[in-house]
Amino acid sequence: MPAAQALLDKFNTIKTLPHVAIRLTKLISDENSTMQDFEKMIKMDPTLVLRLLRVVNSSYYALRQKVDSISRAVVIIGMNNLRNMIVTETLKDIFKESQEQDAFSRNRLWLHCAAVSICSQMISERIFGQNGENAFLCGILHDIGMIVEDQTAHDLFNHACKAYAQDSGTIIDHEKEIIGTDHCEVGYLLAKDWKLPLEVQEGIKQHHKALKEVSPSSITGIIQISEYIVSKLNYTAIPGMNTMLSSPLATHIRENVGEYKALVKDLPDEMSKASDLYEHQKE
């Protein structure tokens, strides 16, 4: 993936992502990290300290006593939730830094990623009865490669989006033809560089592929199902974007259509709850 790596190197060179956020995500993936390591790193970013304490003291956790200790706050929300909060807040700032264009809108992409992340967590927990934190993380990050392309190869990426809007092919086809890589490859390399869980890396890499064999309960399966669902609600990354759904996943949805109908009905409320939580993280 030389073209994808070149874009990522340029992205990292212009220091788009906060240093503390990158270090923290890597610390969380390191089994040898201590609570002292986290506290020391979080203290380097006063804004992050404020967001963390606001979240843990919000109505979402409904604690009887106010928490004013960083280490205590980390214990309460958990490492994976801390990681997801850091990634989400970092991305929110990045997604705002752009002028709106006809073919591509960072604001639209943010709404799409937020919808996919929330829907993915719901599917993981409600349909499969498993922890949904990694599903949420993969959902919020699955299209991060588009941001990298928009920032490091702006004109080419905009050209690819316009070509896609006028053609029946896939966005991946146009990215590869015009840019030399695609957002799945770029996003995969970024997740790998951040040392995120392997299943999250694979989910980002595979989310646009038609796979003959894929488990519905895998992160890759969950992300594809979630993208399919939110696209039906018009939360697409690009207007009119077609959503790839592998054959085994389509079969799974048909066999469990009642559960998915109930999930879709509850999705707007869950998105509203998540929006309230993000409000607590604002400065």
What is shown here, in short?
With 283 residues, the protein is an all-alpha fold.
Q: Key features?
A:
Hypothetical protein af1432; 16 helices; mainly alpha; 283 residues; globular
Describe the secondary-structure layout.
Blueprint: H1 2-13, H2 19-29, H3 35-42, H4 46-56, H5 70-77, H6 79-96, H7 106-127, H8 133-141, H9 144-152, H10 154-165, H11 171-178, H12 183-193, H13 198-206, H14 219-232, H15 247-255, H16 257-281
Structure description:
With 283 residues, this protein is mainly α. It has helices at 2-13, 19-29, 35-42, 46-56, 70-77, 79-96, 106-127, 133-141, 144-152, 154-165, 171-178, 183-193, 198-206, 219-232, 247-255, 257-281. The protein has one domain (2-281): Hypothetical protein af1432 (Orthogonal Bundle), CATH 1.10.3210. Helix 10 crosses helix 11, helix 12 runs antiparallel to helix 13 (198-206) and helix 13 (198-206) packs across helix 14 (219-232).
What integer value in Å does the Rg equal? 19 Å
The sequence of SSEs as H and E is HHHHHHHHHHHHHHHH
So, the CATH homologous superfamily? Hypothetical protein af1432
Unreliable residue stretches? 279-283
Major sheet description: none
